Known about the structure:
With 927 residues, this protein is mainly alpha-helical. The chain contains 45 helices and eight strands. Strand 7 and strand 8 (323-326) form a beta hairpin. The longest helix has 18 residues, at 411-428. The N and C termini lie far apart (69 Å).
Amino acid sequence: xxxxxxxxxxxxxxxxxxxxxxxxxxxxxxxxxxxxxxxxxxxxxxxxxxxxxxxxxxxxxxxxxxxxxxxxxxxxxxxxxxxxxxxxxxxxxxxxxxxxxxxxxxxxxxxxxxxxxxxxxxxxxxxxxxxxxxxxxxxxxxxxxxxxxxxxxxxxxxxxxxxxxxxxxxxxxxxxxxxxxxxxxxxxxxxxxxxxxxxxxxxxxxxxxxxxxxxxxxxxxxxxxxxxxxxxxxxxxxxxxxxxxxxxxxxxxxxxxxxxxxxxxxxxxxxxxxxxxxxxxxxxxxxxxxxxxxxxxxxxxxxxxxxxxxxxxxxxxxxxxxxxxxxxxxxxxxxxxxxxxxxxxxxxxxxxxxxxxxxxxxxxxxxxxxxxxxxxxxxxxxxxxxxxxxxxxxxxxxxxxxxxxxxxxxxxxxxxxxxxxxxxxxxxxxxxxxxxxxxxxxxxxxxxxxxxxxxxxxxxxxxxxxxxxxxxxxxxxxxxxxxxxxxxxxxxxxxxxxxxxxxxxxxxxxxxxxxxxxxxxxxxxxxxxxxxxxxxxxxxxxxxxxxxxxxxxxxxxxxxxxxxxxxxxxxxxxxxxxxxxxxxxxxxxxxxxxxxxxxxxxxxxxxxxxxxxxxxxxxxxxxxxxxxxxxxxxxxxxxxxxxxxxxxxxxxxxxxxxxxxxxxxxxxxxxxxxxxxxxxxxxxxxxxxxxxxxxxxxxxxxxxxxxxxxxxxxxxxxxxxxxxxxxxxxxxxxxxxxxxxxxxxxxxxxxxxxxxxxxxxxxxxxxxxxxxxxxxxxxxxxxxxxxxxxxxxxxxxxxxxxxxxxxxxxxxxxxxxxxxxxxxxxxxxxxxxxxxxxxxxxxxxxxxxxxxxxxxxxxxxxxxxxxxxxxxxxxxxxxxxxxxxxxxxxxxxxxxxxxxxxxxxxxxxxxxxxxxxxxxxxxxxxx
Length: 927
């Protein structure tokens, strides 16, 4: 197609050889082997839509099915309107399971606007994914998303969910948007191609291809004003032909930006068109996505079809399939802005009158027609927002409430609506938007309660980023100011602040958290109080903290609220009640998903990932970290984005790929300052330290792990909680790097501060570190304290490391039988976790101790499974997914995953594919 003169066969795509080649690679990816999503960006008129059309033509020639959506500025406030346009050819999805059909029916069916129950956002996303996947089994699909900058936020969320889960499916997606308006979900995580200005050569060729190409000065002026914009190169010669020799010079003011010049250019056809045509065009422009039936109802005195005929003849619009489509979105923009406000208002009012059966669209047209604050229109938009919230459309609700607030005359009600808009934006997962709206509430009201709630939301928005100090300035201020007058609000602010206090790790904020907590009557929120107290100091006075935890758990048993679940999930994790943390955090995520709170999930999912990692459920931890990362990336929750990537890097190191682990760890913190986020700083050091240890660089490993503690005369943890769990690996690296003396000063200093009541987990870590650094036979008592009993079984990797170290110690003292028992226990755990470096080391030690590694392990009989575990195992062996099993047994998918990760070690297997053989073997043995 492309020749050496940069001139493809079709002049409509002159100068776009590189972009066309990239589109070809995208289409080839439908068979696997390359990114399956591509984002086209560029200024208006750059030719993005032309390239999308070319992709459609090329896809059809390859036998791909085409699904297409074009964003509409007029529908940007209507939740899920874009996804509906994309999926319309596939609905209602008769081939899907009943639950997925029901989710699609609730979102897109005739009764969607009146559906009063909250739509499960995850179920909708999964159903859309299922619908696409089911269609792709019949024919590979090309999904085309044009003018994505005008899609409603709910559709953007669903499309982003879909885009991140195309791997393994014969589906590719091409998304085009204006370069300054790429949706946040797509602006940095997918390959992008910028459709820039044409080269001067290509621009000249395109100009020469027009019906009446200009010459001389006019040509030079057009090339200069067009600045390589293909649409301008096509349209400006038409302006010149209409206006004579002076046309080019008057095509637009030189001071105007290119996009404004183009919009003015598109409106140049309007004065020559009949008045009825201009009226009809303005209705089209005001309607956004214009259905002919809507236009006819809006202008019963006007023959709309006849009126549009002159506009269609000059190429401004195209009428097809009952819809009126502008030639380009800029046509609509130009027509709209060429009209006076009086004319635009009249058009919106006519459309509102025609849409009495569609209250949401009607409310938006009334809002566009408003001449100032209007209580009735504001109420209509607020009601629209409530309907959107009822369907789980929090982004659409936030948009409607924000506009409703602008139209509300009463300042107090305006403040309340803006506050509710910020809350909806929080549930939709948009922290920057939350911060902007909550920041405006204080200018509208003197009500201390509303101002405090706004500050709490603003603190939340800052807290999910890395701006911990800014978040705490708001949150601690709210908590102290309302401690006496509104203790419930104060405790909520304090609980929210506790998360930032933990992430910061700064002693000053911990002290402030404790001081302000003493000012609040915490009887009304024992769960929140237990969380805040645990964050202040999770190690000292453990019996007291466990008492507060028990009170919080009792409150949870009485009333399972989202606040209780979140607070107690964090508390149990912080106090090393890890198995309980996994259960509570898993339950929290189930509740959040049913509420459609996608943005809030990121923080809780990251906490669950950490708990699963510590609990030895590494596969589930990695899945949760991946989920947290994508949610946080979409939400702008930088703290979780970094933390999830660091955890993935850690798992990569522990599974034996130190080079990839180092790369991932460094990528996680690129352009991030961790000096005021000490928890992440320490976890990052741990990831790098374990990567170095696995690579055999013990000195480098020691340096990284040593950086988790200060260089003071009496070393202290850099982070009061996260640093402590590095002690065992610090000691292991120190012994191999010849740094045992320095490591002893660290371990001895920390151990003094942890007396007398460390958690069983932390006590075992200290015993392991002390044993490794002890040169005498006294090491044995510390080794035995680290491995004996079942109290530390829920931290299997840490316990297996202690078994391995003890086994090596025993073998070097020629106590082979005892060594083999320790090494066999270690090897069994390492193999189950797929911790390859330690598997190899334990196997080598076993061979040196006189036992073949393969004889050290036995397979646990399936008879150890509980009845529920057996049910789950049998269903999984039949090929059911976690969601399918959950539907059969009336459990949550997260609960099913938790049980499966307990079933695997009982059966002595490491993968789902082994379930059938393991259960069959047990049955044969029983027979």
